């Protein structure tokens, strides 16, 4: 019992910090922890991670929204494209034998973390507002299409890819990018968790409750800090969190 509590606490803390600071999917942290240290079946572990993602992303999105750091309109456009093309990507992956890219999200997490430290995103909301509405909608749809297809094909990397595209392609300032990312992740995680539990049955209730609670707690703390921090501080904090999580997840994978 003590081992389960410790593993779920560490997994939830890492996932919550990643979600609150950078819109990172909890599945990237919680799944390998539960599989490695609790010998949990992979399918069940992913289901618990996705369920943990739902409330953590929702409370983070609420916090960012209250601070006017959330683009709901374009977020809905991207979310629709992500959900649709995740199914397309999953279908395409089923046609390609022996396609495995399990380390994709790990390296992307580390590289993105280093990127925020070395080249911080200093775009302002005023600069964001200069883009035309039509252009923003089209870009959101195209980016959502790419994110959804790759997530369905590879099975990972959604939160990180959205953050990268929102900041680098759509020109979002960091807080709005994270807020929009966690808004989208709320619904994609809900869809994924529901499908996992419908197919694989109910997970270990003790692990589920602990992971959801700890992820929610740390996501709330991280989101509150992020919305009060300056752009420079937030870039550094996000970069450090992502780099540390990437190294930690890679270490866990090596232990396996």
Gist?
The chain is an all-alpha fold and 256 residues long. The protein is 82% helix and 0% strand. About 2% of the residues have low confidence.
Provide a descriptive summary of the structure in words.
- This protein is an all-alpha fold and 256 residues long.
- It has one domain (2-255).
- It contains eleven helices and no strands.
- Helix 1 crosses helix 3 (42-66), helix 1 (2-22) packs parallel to helix 10 and helix 4 (72-94) packs across helix 9.
- The protein is globular, with a radius of gyration of 17 Å.
- The model is unreliable at 98-102 (pLDDT under 50).
Mean pLDDT across all amino acids: 82
Determine the strand fraction and express it as a percent band: under 5%
Gross morphology is globular
How many strand segments?
0
Number of domains: 1
Instruction: State the major sheet.
Output: none
């Amino acid at each position: 019992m003590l081992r389960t509590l410790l593993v779920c606490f560490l997994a939830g803390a890492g996932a919550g910090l990643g979600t609150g600071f950078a819109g990172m999917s909890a599945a990237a942290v919680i799944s390998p922890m539960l599989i490695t240290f609790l010998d949990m079946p992979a399918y069940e572990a992913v289901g618990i991670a996705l369920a943990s993602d739902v409330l953590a992303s929702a409370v983070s999105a609420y916090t960012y929204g209250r601070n006017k750091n959330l683009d709901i309109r374009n977020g809905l456009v991207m979310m629709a494209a992500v959900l649709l093309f995740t199914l397309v990507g999953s279908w395409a992956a089923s046609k390609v034998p022996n396609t495995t890219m399990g380390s994709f999200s790990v390296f992307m997490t580390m590289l993105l973390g280093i990127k925020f430290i070395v080249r911080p995103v200093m775009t302002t909301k005023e600069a964001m507002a200069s883009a035309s509405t039509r252009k923003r909608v089209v870009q959101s749809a195209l980016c959502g299409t790419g994110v959804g297809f790759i997530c369905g094909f590879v099975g990972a990397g959604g939160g990180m890819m959205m953050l990268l595209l929102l900041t680098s392609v759509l020109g979002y300032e960091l807080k709005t990018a994270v807020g929009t990312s966690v808004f989208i992740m709320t619904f994609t995680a809900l869809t994924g968790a529901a499908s996992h539990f419908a197919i694989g049955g109910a997970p270990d209730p003790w692990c589920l409750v602990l992971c959801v609670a700890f992820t929610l707690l740390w996501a709330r703390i991280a989101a509150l800090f992020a919305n009060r921090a300056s752009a420079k501080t937030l870039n550094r904090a996000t970069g450090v969190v992502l780099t540390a999580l990437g190294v930690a997840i890679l270490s866990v994978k090596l232990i396996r």
